[in-house]
Amino acid sequence: MISFTVAGSLICTPLMIPASAQAGTLPAVAPAQDPEEPALTEAKKLYKEGEIQFQTAEYEEALVLWKRAFGMLPEGDETRGIRHALVYNIAEAHRRAYEVSRNPTHLRKAKILLDNYRADHRALYGDEPEAVKERSEVDDRIAELDKIIAESEAAGETATPIADGGGGAGTVTPPPDGSQPPQPHPQPEPQPAPKPLTPQQQWEAEVKADPTLGPMWVQSNKRIVGGAVLSGIGIPFTLVSILLFISAPSAVVFPGAVWAGGVATGVIGLGLLIPGGMLLGKGIAQRKEVTTAKPKPIGRVIPVMLPSGGGVGYTLRF
């Protein structure tokens, strides 16, 4: 029998790993033990590596190694105690990993593992005083986890998935030569299908793409907008000027000031209206030139007469 110890922060369980027995002739010089099964040898190696990671607070790495060791141990009476003790160590690594990452998923996994550990403990070790004491300590640890989980929920901590390090889905096992395994390439997110353009939008897109009509269309829009702004500001000044001229003859106090105000506002109003009107005229003329060269699609509702009756139809001109 070959032994090694799986140690958690609370329980240290000596584990007995049976050696494989092989028949054969032994050398005459001295008796020798049969070689250990490769799976057990690799499991011991992984456990020791995980123990180093655990002792140096690399709990995520310890989880990966201990889960791999657990997966390598075959099921059976000879390895049941080893697998059972590893469950406790993995649960403890999850609890410690939460202290680093604050990911509540570690706490919930630790609680599930400890519940499973306690359920199997009695079947393995019975009701001996030492076994009962160990289960009591596990109960205390589960109660402590429940308290930490409640505090985590109250703090609003968000649980995120944890990559399975035990050979399950999402695990990339490093090659034996120590080289880095190929990393999966991220898949691009599918782009939503573009919405179909309306006839008016299609016409505008074609006009803007035209090297001649495109600049004319843009310039005409700018002139129309600029002319509308200037005219909109000039009209109030012009109206004020007209009102002042009308009221000036009957003004009792400072009639000269009223005349001067009318002249000033009139000059400002005309100074805005004249260029505004010119811009509007040029913009409208340019826009008409573009629509003449490339007519807009026009939809119309027209009456339709059929042998069986009548109705209306919709026509679209391109």
Describe the structure.
With 318 residues, this protein is mostly helical. It has two domains: 2-20 and 35-154, Serine Threonine Protein Phosphatase 5, Tetratricopeptide repeat, CATH 1.25.40; 200-317. The protein contains eight helices and four strands, in the order E-E-H-H-H-H-H-H-H-H-E-E. The chain has helices spanning 38-55, 59-72, 77-101, 104-125, 129-154, 199-209, 213-247, 255-293, and strands at 2-7, 12-17, 298-306, 309-317. The protein has a two-stranded antiparallel sheet with strand order 1-2. Strand 1 and strand 2 (12-17) form a beta hairpin. Helix 6 crosses helix 7 (213-247). It is elongated. The termini are far apart. Residues 1-35 and 166-176 have low confidence and may be disordered.
Task: Please supply descriptive tags for the structure shown above.
disordered N terminus; two-stranded antiparallel ribbon; mainly alpha; 4 strands; single chain; Serine Threonine Protein Phosphatase 5, Tetratricopeptide repeat; 2 domains; 318 residues; two-stranded antiparallel sheet; elongated
Largest sheet: 2 strands, antiparallel
Q: Structural class of the secondary structure composition?
A: mainly alpha
Given this structure, which CATH class of the largest domain is correct?
Mainly Alpha
User: Strand order within the widest sheet?
Assistant: 1-2
User: pLDDT average, as an integer?
Assistant: 75
- Uncertain stretches: 1-35, 166-176
CATH architecture of the largest domain: Alpha Horseshoe
Strand elements, count: 4
Total number of helical segments? 8
**In one word, what is the shape?**
elongated
Biased composition (Pro residues): 173-197
InterPro entries: TPR_rpt
Keywords: Membrane, Signal, TPR repeat, Transmembrane, Transmembrane helix
Signal peptide: 1-23
